[in-house]
Design the sequence.
C-alpha cells in the first residue's frame, strides 16, 4: 500500500474488496477513512471535516448524529433484537411501520412488503409481479421496461432493470426480460428545436412502439425513478409522466415508481409521485426511510396486486419469498422514529427551502464556459460540464471535469459525487441556511481550483 491513513497504520488493507470501486486504483490511492459524523459533517481519521454533500449515498436525511434514532435502535435491541416474519410470525415495529407507510404514501397504495435494500426490493418487485400475473392467469405477461441511465440496484433482476453500462459490463447483464427505452433528459437527448413537451411525446410514442413490438400480452411493468438519481440527477421533462402513464394504462402495464432516492422529502414533497403527479401501482422506498442508520426498504403496493398474490399464496400453499431479516425489528423501529422526526421537524419544507438556496447558489455558474446544464428539484441538484457550451461536447476522457471538481471539493472539505459529466448534490435534509452557504462557499473554492488555468 502506498498510502495509509492514521488509524490504519499497521493494518492490512488487502482483505476488503470495496463495492463500486476500482480495486487497482484503490490499491494505489488508499481509502478515505471516515471516523465519525456530526450533523451534516463527517470527519476523517485525521480529524479533517467534510460536509457530506451527498448525504452518504443520497440517504442520510437526518444527518450523522441523530440521537433519537440511536435510542430507538437501543430500545428495540433491549426488548426484541430479532424476530422474523415468516410463516405468520410477526412483531410490532414491522406491523406499525407498514401501517404508517400506507397512511403516508399516495392513495391507492395499501399493502407493504419489507426487504433490506433497494436492490432486494426491486428484485422482489419483479418476483411479486411474476407471481401476481401467474396467479391471475396472465402467464405470458412478464417483461419489464426500464430506461437507459435508470438505476434500480445491482442484484440480478434489479441490475437488469438498471440501465447503466457500468453495472452490466462483466456481469452478463441485463437478463432477457428487460427492455430499456430512452433516458428522459431533454438537454442531452432532445432533437434540435424539440420542446420538452414534444420530447415527452416522442418518448411516450417510443414506449408505445416498444410495447407493441414486444406484444402487450408479454409486457408486465414499466419501472422508473420519478426523478432519476444515480443516472446523474435528471428531473423529468414537462409532460413526461402524464404521457408515459397514459401509455402504460392503455396496455395494462403496471407502473413501478422507484423512490429509493426520491422518497421522504427529497424532491420537496413527501414523495416524488406527488411532485410529478404519478399514480403508481407499486412504490419502492429505502435509504431515507431510516436515514440509512439501518438497512431497510419497503415495497408499497395496490390492494389489487395484493389480492392476486394472496390468492396465489393459497393455491400454491405459500408466498415463497422473503429474507431472514425482512422487516427486521431494529430497522423498522428506527424507520418509525425516523419518519416521526421528518414530520415533527417539517423537514420536507426545509428540503424545499434549502434546495431553493442551493439552486440559487449554483445558478451563478450558468455563464461559466464549461457549464452545460444546471438542474434539480427540491434538495437534489447537479451541474453538467461540457467542453464546448455551443455544441455540448463533453470533456475527454469522459467524466474528467466532474471528477476534477469532486476531487477539488473533497480537498476543500465537501464530499460530492461525480456521475458521468455531472457533479451531484444531495445534502442531508436537516441542513440549515448557514450550512448551505458554507457548502456553496466550499464548492466555489473547488470550482475555482478545478478550472484554474494551468501554469
Ligand atoms: N433504486 C434506486 C432509485 C437507487 O438509487 C438505489 C441505490 N442508489 C437502488 C434502487 C438500490 O438500492 P441499494 O443500494 O440499497 O440496493
Sequence:
Amino acid at each position: 500500500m502506498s498510502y495509509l491513513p492514521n488509524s490504519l497504520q499497521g493494518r492490512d488493507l488487502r482483505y476488503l474488496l470495496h463495492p463500486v470501486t476500482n480495486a487497482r486504483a484503490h490499491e494505489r490511492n488508499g481509502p478515505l477513512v471516515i471516523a465519525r459524523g456530526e450533523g451534516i459533517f463527517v470527519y476523517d481519521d485525521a480529524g479533517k471535516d467534510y460536509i457530506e454533500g451527498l448525504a452518504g449515498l443520497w440517504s442520510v436525511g437526518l444527518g450523522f448524529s441523530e440521537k433519537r434514532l440511536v435510542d430507538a435502535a437501543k430500545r428495540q435491541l433491549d426488548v426484541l433484537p430479532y424476530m422474523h416474519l415468516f410463516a405468520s410470525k410477526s412483531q410490532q415495529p414491522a406491523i406499525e411501520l407498514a401501517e404508517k407507510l400506507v397512511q403516508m404514501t399516495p392513495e391507492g397504495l395499501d399493502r407493504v412488503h419489507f426487504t433490506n435494500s433497494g436492490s432486494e426490493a426491486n428484485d422482489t418487485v419483479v418476483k411479486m409481479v411474476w407471481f401476481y400475473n401467474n396467479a391471475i392467469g396472465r402467464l405470458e405477461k412478464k417483461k419489464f421496461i426500464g430506461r437507459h441511465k435508470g438505476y434500480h440496484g445491482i442484484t440480478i433482476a434489479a441490475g437488469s432493470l438498471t440501465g447503466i453500462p457500468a453495472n452490466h459490463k462483466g456481469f452478463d447483464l441485463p437478463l432477457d426480460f428487460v427492455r430499456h427505452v430512452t433516458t428522459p433528459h431533454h438537454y442531452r437527448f432532445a432533437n434540435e428545436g424539440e420542446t420538452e413537451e414534444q420530447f415527452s411525446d416522442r418518448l411516450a410514442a417510443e414506449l408505445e412502439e416498444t410495447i407493441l413490438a414486444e406484444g402487450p400480452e408479454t409486457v408486465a411493468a414499466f419501472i422508473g425513478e420519478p426523478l432519476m438519481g444515480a443516472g446523474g440527477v435528471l428531473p423529468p421533462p414537462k409532460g413526461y409522466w402524464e404521457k408515459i402513464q397514459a401509455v402504460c394504462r392503455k396496455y395494462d402495464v403496471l407502473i413501478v415508481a422507484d423512490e429509493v432516492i426520491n422518497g421522504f422529502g427529497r424532491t420537496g414533497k413527501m414523495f416524488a409521485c406527488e411532485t410529478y403527479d404519478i399514480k403508481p401501482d407499486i412504490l419502492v422506498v429505502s435509504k431515507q426511510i431510516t436515514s440509512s442508520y439501518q438497512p431497510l426498504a419497503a415495497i408499497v403496493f395496490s390492494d389489487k396486486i395484493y389480492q392476486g398474490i394472496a390468492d396465489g399464496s393459497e393455491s400454491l400453499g405459500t408466498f415463497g419469498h422473503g429474507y431472514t431479516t425482512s422487516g427486521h425489528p431494529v430497522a423498522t423501529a428506527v424507520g418509525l422514529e425516523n419518519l416521526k422526526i421528518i414530520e415533527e421537524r417539517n423537514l420536507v419544507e426545509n428540503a424545499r427551502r434549502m434546495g431553493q438556496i442551493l439552486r440559487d447558489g449554483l445558478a451563478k455558474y450558468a455563464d461559466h464556459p464549461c457549464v452545460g446544464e444546471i438542474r434539480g428539484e427540491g434538495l437534489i441538484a447537479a451541474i453538467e460540464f461540457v467542453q464546448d457550451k455551443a455544441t455540448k461536447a463533453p470533456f475527454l476522457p469522459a467524466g474528467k471535469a466532474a471528477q476534477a471538481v469532486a476531487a477539488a471539493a473533497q480537498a476543500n472539505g465537501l464530499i460530492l459525487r461525480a456521475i458521468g459529466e455531472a457533479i451531484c448534490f444531495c445534502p442531508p435534509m436537516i441542513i440549515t441556511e448557514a450550512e448551505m452557504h458554507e457548502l456553496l462557499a466550499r464548492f466555489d473554492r473547488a470550482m475555482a481550483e478545478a478550472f484554474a488555468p494551468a501554469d
Observations:
- The pocket of 4'-deoxy-4'-aminopyridoxal-5'-phosphate is lined by residues 57, 117-119, 122, 151-153, 225, 229-230, 258, 260-261, 286 (CB under 6 Å).
- Residues 53 and 427 are 4 Å apart (CA to CA).
- The longest strand covers residues 371-377.
- The chain has a mean pLDDT of 97.
